[in-house]
């Protein structure tokens, strides 16, 4: 009997650091309404900031007249080995530290604090003097999010969509690993003169209404590991032996009870 108690005690200790089901489930504290539309109250309207890079295109019924208002990529006879994503970065408008861009023929335009729709309207109004029925499109070229920690593919994610959620970023990073701490995801947001650290609990229902649910350009997301990750990092082989020993002890325990 003493041997059985000892075996049971060892089994409990060895398995106490295992990952349970609750730790692997997102929104496990949320009672989400099924098939019921919920108003989105925390949508983030991105505003242009210094060092943003914008792609702005101008079109008209007269392409020749619209050409001087566009920055075109420099053509090259040999395209082999060219990274077109990097090349595109050189065909955008960089917002300077004062918030201006230098636009062909229109000169310096203040765009800091504007959203993309407001920038399109600004340029469209100025182009009506030169073009008939101008069409302006605008998007971010350097919208990036950095995702680190317990995700499948950590790194920098470059996006063209200006409406990005934390779930979008985690999805682009290959989702969370089994060792991700879903109760404490750190989001670092840096402004011109400030830096904000926000801890987000992915399990809670109010996560979807969190003002940081929608991400901004240059946000950093860090997913920290749970304590069960410690053993796999320090000695993966020893952890395998521990699980093997736990299984052997469990079989021995069952055999002892069966024999009695």
UniProtKB/TrEMBL annotation:
Membrane as UniProt keyword: yes
Chief place where the protein resides: membrane
How is the protein disposed in the membrane?
A: Multi-pass membrane protein
SLBB domain sequence ranges: 144-223
GO annotation (BP), single: monoatomic ion transport
Residues annotated as domain Polysaccharide export protein N-terminal: 45-138
- Alphabetized Gene3D superfamilies for the sequence: Outer membrane lipoprotein wza domain like
A GO-annotated cellular component: pore complex
Keyword Membrane, does the record have it? yes
Keywords, comma-separated and alphabetical? Cell outer membrane, Ion transport, Lipoprotein, Membrane, Palmitate, Polysaccharide transport, Porin, Signal, Sugar transport, Transmembrane, Transmembrane beta strand, Transport
**Matching InterPro entries, A to Z?**
Poly_export (IPR049712), Poly_export_N (IPR003715), SLBB_dom (IPR054765)
Which Pfam families does the record associate with it?
Poly_export, SLBB_2
One of the record's GO molecular function terms: porin activity
**Which compartments is it annotated to reside in?**
Cell outer membrane
What the entry lists under PANTHER family is as follows: POLYSACCHARIDE EXPORT PROTEIN GFCE-RELATED
Family, according to the entry, reads as follows:
Belongs to the BexD/CtrA/VexA family.
- Protein name per UniProt: Polysaccharide export outer membrane protein
The major lineage groups are: Bacteria, Pseudomonadati, Bacteroidota, Saprospiria, Saprospirales
């Amino acid at each position: 009997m003493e041997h059985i108690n000892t075996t049971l005690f060892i089994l409990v200790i060895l398995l106490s650091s295992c990952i349970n089901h609750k730790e692997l489930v997102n929104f496990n504290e949320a009672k989400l309404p099924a098939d019921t539309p919920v108003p989105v109250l925390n949508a983030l309207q991105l505003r242009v900031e210094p060092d943003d890079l914008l792609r702005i295109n101008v079109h008209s019924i007269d392409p020749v007249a619209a050409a001087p208002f566009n920055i075109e990529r420099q053509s090259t006879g040999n395209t082999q080995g060219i990274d077109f994503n990097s090349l595109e970065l050189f065909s955008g408008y960089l917002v300077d530290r004062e918030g201006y861009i230098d636009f062909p023929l229109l000169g310096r335009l203040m765009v800091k604090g504007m959203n993309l729709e407001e920038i399109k309207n600004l340029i469209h109004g100025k182009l009506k003097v030169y073009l008939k029925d101008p069409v302006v499109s605008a998007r971010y070229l350097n919208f990036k999010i950095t995702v680190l920690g317990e995700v499948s593919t950590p790194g920098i994610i470059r996006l063209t969509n200006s409406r990005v959620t934390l779930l979008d970023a985690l999805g682009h990073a290959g989702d969370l690993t089994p060792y991700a701490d879903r109760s404490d995801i750190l989001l670092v947001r840096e402004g011109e003169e400030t830096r904000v650290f926000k801890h987000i609990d992915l399990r809670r229902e109010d996560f979807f209404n969190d003002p940081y649910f929608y991400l901004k350009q240059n946000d950093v997301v860090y997913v920290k590991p749970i304590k069960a990750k410690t053993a796999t990092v320090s000695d993966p082989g020893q952890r395998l032996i521990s699980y093997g020993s736990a299984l052997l002890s469990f079989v021995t325990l069952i055999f002892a009870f069966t024999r009695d």
